[in-house]
Amino acid sequence: MSSATISTTLDRAVNRPAGTDVVIRAVGVNYAYGTGQTRTQVLFDNHLEVGRGEVVVMTGPSGSGKSTLLTLIGALRSMQEGHLSVLREDLSKAQEWERVEVRKRIGFIFQQHNLFTSLSALENVRMATALKPASVKDMNARCEAMLERLGLGDRVRNRPSELSGGQKQRVAIARALVNGPALILADEPTASLDAESSGIVLDLFRELADGPDKTTVLLVTHDQRVLDKADRIVHMIGGRIVTNSLTRVAVRIVRALAATDSLAGLSEATLSRLATHMTAETRGAGDEIVREGEEGDRFYTVGSGVADAFQDGRFVEEKCFGESFGMISSYFKVPIPETVKARTEMELYVLAKDDFLRALADDQSFEARIRGLLAGAAQGDHAPASP
What we know:
By secondary structure, this protein is an alpha+beta fold.
């Protein structure tokens, strides 16, 4: 595989950030509350990279460590173990003044609105502009424009006591966004919003991420409406990141898996779980992807493009959307049965050996299907078809 192909593969992998400009990098992050006999560890060996301009949703049950990890990323807590860099600043051993400087570049949105009760909506948002001062006229204009964008143009003079819970939340969001932060960290930002207001906020997050400044957005939420705007979903259980997948790529993978004959009949939930274990890579026309007779450690499913399959040097078939090839030789006890070369540029969805074994352990439906393929291969005395 050429170095160019390898680079493309890593950039497009499902469990990696969309770009090379990494805004958040966490390596082996652990965290515990208390000391001695009361010490309770809540984060365990977490690894995460988030690229510039990504909208990343962090999900998981209550107590899974999401908020703790969010506050570490926001430089609101001191690191204990592991490495963490945010906005190119190393927080692993940062002093309080260094964390303050990082926080100035972050827009925070929390479930508690933390508004000043004696100030109007405009004045509450204006408080944040002290971090990015300009003329009073310009600061007021920025605040009014942001409140207008969030549907509060007619409420700029109202105090918090005159606002509903959802309106207070939108004021807090305006305050977090008014300075154009490089990173937005949000904990349940749409929890108190109705469908229309939630849509406005999520559209704004997406616009900021896609805009010229490429703002990065990391949200902790249970709101399913967020998923349509997200680039990636990070799921935590028991203090650990257990899945980390690009949603837009994952949708394409599920569609390709659903068209795969050997997976016909598996539920969408099973296919979605399988997709979280897969990565995406691109290949150019003429690339040899697998070679007959060699030991293999990957399955491939075609997402787009066309490949040609050969056995004993003779063309046997073409591989199109939803068709699979490759082999996990150590599991199926057979070598790769055919050589496959890309005829056109291709997007391939890849299940590597370790991820294949994890997928078997995680999903009984997928395991049952693989056992069925093995049984069929044993009765027919031929290599099993790729799943």
